[in-house]
Amino acid sequence: MASKFGRNDSFSNRRFHLIILFLTALTLRLIYFVQSSANPLLYTPVLDETYYIHLGKTIAGGFWMGEDRLFFMDPLYGYFLGSIFYFFGDNLTTVRLLQILIDSFNVVLICLIGEKVWSRQAGVMAALFYAVYKVSFYYTLLILKTTGTITLSLLFTLTAIGAAKRGRKVDWFLLGLFAGALTFFRANLLLMAPLAVMVYWFVERPRFFQKLLPNGAMLMAGLLAVLSIGAVRNYMVSGEVVFLNTQTGRLLYSSNNPCNLTGGYSTPSFSRRNAEDSETDFHKESERRLGRKLSAKEVSGYWVGQTIDYLRENPGAAFTLLYNKIKATVGDYEIPNNFSSYIAERFSSLARAPLPTFAFAFALGIPGLALGLAGNRKVAWALLPLITSLVTILIFYTSSRFRIPAVPSLLIGSGVLIVTAYDWMKKKETAKAVLLIAVSIALAAISLLASNPQPTGDGKYFLARAYWNIGDLGKASAVSGESAIRFPRDSRFQMLSGMIALSENRIEDAINQNLLALKINPSDADAHHNLGLAYHAMGRNDEAVESLKKAYLVNPRPKSLYALARIYDQTGDKDDAISVYRRYLSVSRRGNPLRERAGQRIEELRSAGVK
C-alpha cells in the first residue's frame, strides 16, 4: 500500500514541489537547447521533419485540408505546427521552445499520476527522474511528434483516472473525444481507448450493465465522432472512406518480412528509404504484383495481408522477430530512426553527463510497477503508456522514438520502488530491501548487456549534409571523408564529397566523386542529380541532361525536373524548357518556392513567342 512517511514534512507543500520540479526540468532543457545551438542538424530538417514542416506551412497558408490526398502520416502534429506558423511565423525556434515548455510540464503530469496511483512521494520521485532524463531533452528539439505524444498519453491517463473515479457517462464520452484527437496525433495511441476500459474494470470493478458497458460505449461513441471527421476529410480529397493514415501496411511489412528479421525498420529492396518515396514504391510494387490499379487504402491492406500471411506460414520467423524486438527494447541503447541522440550529444556537455538513461528506468521501474500492482490496483493506470508503446513495438518495430513514451510509466514504478524500499529500511526489513536492490541491479545488467548498437551511416550522413547546408564545408568534408572510410559501401559519402567539391567550384573533383558514388550504387539518384549539375557547370550540357534524366528515372523528384528545365532554358531549348517546367509544376508540392519561379519563367517564355 502507499507509503505513510513524511506526511508533515516538505512533501506536504504540493504546489511548491510542482513548481520546483517544473522549473528544474525547464532549466535543464533550456541549457541543453543553448548548448546545442552549434548542432547544424537544428538548421537542416530531414525526412519526417521536412514532411511536417511543409504540412504546417501549407496549413498556415490557408489550405486547411493540409494535402490534396489521404494523409500518409498522422496529421494533427502538422496542424499544431500550422497554428504556430500562422500566429508566430515559421521560425523553428518558437516550436522548440514550446516543446521544451510542454516537456517540462510532463513532470507535473507524472507527479500527479504517481500521487493518484500510489503516493505524493512516489510522484515527486518519478517527476524528478523525468526532469533529469536526458533522452527527453533531445526530443524537444526535433520537429517531430515525440514530445507531444508523451504529453498527450500522460494527459489521457490522468483524464481516464478522473473519469473512472466519477463514473459519469459524459466523462467517458469526453474521454472518447480525447482518444480520437490522440489517434490523429499518433495512430498507435488508439490502443489507449480499449486499454482504459480494461483498466477501469480491473481497478474499479464496476457492474457490467450498470457502469462498464454504458461507459465503454460512450467512450467509443466519442472516439468514433472524432475519427469520423477525418473520414469525411479523406473522402472529400480522395473519394475513399479512410479513418487513419495510409502507411500502416508499409510500416508493418518493412518491419516484418523475410529480408528483415532484426526487429527494426528496414525497407525491402524494391523501396527507397525516404518515407514518402517508400510509400510510392510500395504502391507501385503492390500494383505490379496484382496487375491492377489500387487505391491507397487497398495498398495498405495488401501489405498488411502479406505480413500476416508470412508470419502465419513462418512461425519461426515470428519468434525471431519477437525475441529481437524485446531484446532491443529492454536494451539501454537508444536505437536511432534517422535521428541519433548520440550524435547530438557531441554538442552538449549536459547530454554527456551521467544522467539517468533507459537502463535506470527499466531496472527500477519493472520491479516498482510489480510491487505497486501487488499493493494497489490503481497502479494499473500508470501502465497505459507502457502497454501502448510495447504493443506498438511488438507489432511494428523497436526504436527510441517508439519507446520513450513508455519511460514515464517506468519512472512512476521507480518512484514506487524508492518509496517502498525506504519504508522497508525504516521498518528494519533490510532483507527485503536488499533483495529489491539485487533485482534492480540484475535488470540493469540485462539492459546494458542487451544493448547491441548497429552503426549505420545515417547519422553521420545527415550531420555532414547539415554542415554543408549551413556552409561549413570544412566540417562537412571532415565528417564525410571519415565516414566514407568507415562505411565504404555507402555511396552517400562520395556523393556528398561531390556536393562539397561543387560548392568549392572544384568541378572536376565533383564529377569524379559522383562517378565513384555511382560505381558503388548505380541507383543513387542524388549522385546522378549532382553529376548533372557538375556537368552543366563545366559546360557539358548533353551529359548534364542525361544525368538529370537518369536521376528522375531512378527517383522521380521534382528538383531534378526543375534542374533539367533550367538547363534547357539556359541553352536556348525553350520548347523543352516550357514542357519540363510544366511537368515540374504538375508534380511539385504546393507551397514550394520554386513553383512561383517556374510559373513566371513559363509566362516569360510564352510572351517571347514560345508556345
Write the layout of secondary structure elements.
Blueprint: H1 14-35, H2 48-60, H3 76-88, H4 92-117, H5 120-131, H6 134-140, H7 146-166, H8 169-185, H9 192-204, H10 208-238, H11 248-255, H12 275-290, H13 296-313, H14 315-330, H15 341-345, H16 349-352, H17 358-375, H18 384-395, H19 400-403, H20 407-426, H21 430-450, H22 458-469, H23 473-486, H24 492-503, H25 507-520, H26 525-537, H27 541-554, H28 558-570, H29 574-587, H30 593-607
Question: Can you walk through the features of this model?
Answer:
This protein is mainly alpha-helical. It folds into three domains: 10-241 and 334-450, no CATH class; 455-556, Tetratricopeptide repeat domain (Serine Threonine Protein Phosphatase 5, Tetratricopeptide repeat, Alpha Horseshoe); 561-611, no CATH class. The protein has helices at 14-35, 48-60, 76-88, 92-117, 120-131, 134-140, 146-166, 169-185, 192-204, 208-238, 248-255, 275-290, 296-313, 315-330, 341-345, 349-352, 358-375, 384-395, 400-403, 407-426, 430-450, 458-469, 473-486, 492-503, 507-520, 525-537, 541-554, 558-570, 574-587, 593-607. The longest helix has 31 residues, at 208-238. It is globular. It starts with 13 loop residues before the first helix and ends with a helix. Residues 1-8 have low confidence and may be disordered.
